[in-house]
Amino acid sequence: MSWFVPTMTVITAMTIHFASGARAFPIFISEADYPGLQRTVFTYGLVLTGFLQMMFAWHLYHGLTPKNHRLWNASCLAGIIVGFHVILVAYYDMYDHIDPHIYASMVAFGGGIVWATLGHFALDPSTSPGSKMRKTGITASLLSLVVMIVSFQYAVSTFDTEGLNTEEFLNKAQFGINFAGPAEYLVVGGLMMALASFGIDLNQAQEQQPASETNTQEINQNDI
């Protein structure tokens, strides 16, 4: 649910937004947080996502056995911080609260990469079936985040932003968004892969647990 809910939220909100008449293509994901049904889907979906990801980070912390406990502790904390900032992204839309929205988005994206990376190195790759998938997701997210930031910042540096509302600002920066928008989709996609990879590890741990409990019971019976 930690990756399925945000994926469906983004797809549904953006589909509604394009059907209602988006200003251009491609656009940033947060542009779908526009007044109307798309905002309802976007806001409630991301609020639920934030809580789910905080719960997932805590569940992972207790559900998997790491090889590096310090990194695992830091990973759990990063996951909780990321989940909280996802909720802030839902609350601060880019049309009315652009500065806190940018802050929350960057923490959610960058923090998500940190969360996945710390968790990846905290686990033993020899016993982690999600390791390969996680490396792919982290790499895709990190490279895409760099492309997103550089292309958008370059576009913004070419014109005067004073006096522009959000839509006017985005229209002028569209040539940068042509690269930054798809890059943002890849950032999110990579992070969803990383979350799913942790789920794979968790499923394996849960499948192995009954066998371990059975072995323990047999040993105890033999001792008796």
Which characteristics define this entry?
mainly alpha; 224 residues; single chain
Task: From the alpha carbons, calculate the radius of gyration and give it in angstroms.
Answer: 20 Å
Low-confidence stretches: none
Strand percent estimate: under 5%
Helix fraction, binned, reads over 70%
What is the terminal separation in angstroms? 44 Å
Q: Describe the sheet with the most strands.
A: none
Order of helices and strands: HHHHHHH
Query: What would the average pLDDT be, to the nearest integer?
Result: 93
The geometry reads as elongated
User: What is the number of helical segments per DSSP (H or I, 4+ residues)?
Assistant: 7
The total of beta strands comes to: 0
Q: Please state the structural category.
A: mainly alpha
Provide a descriptive summary of the structure in words.
This protein has 224 residues and is mainly alpha-helical. It has seven helices and no strands. The protein has helices spanning 4-20, 37-63, 69-91, 98-122, 131-156, 166-172, 174-223. The longest helix has 50 residues, at 174-223. It is elongated and about 60 Å long. The N and C termini lie far apart (44 Å).
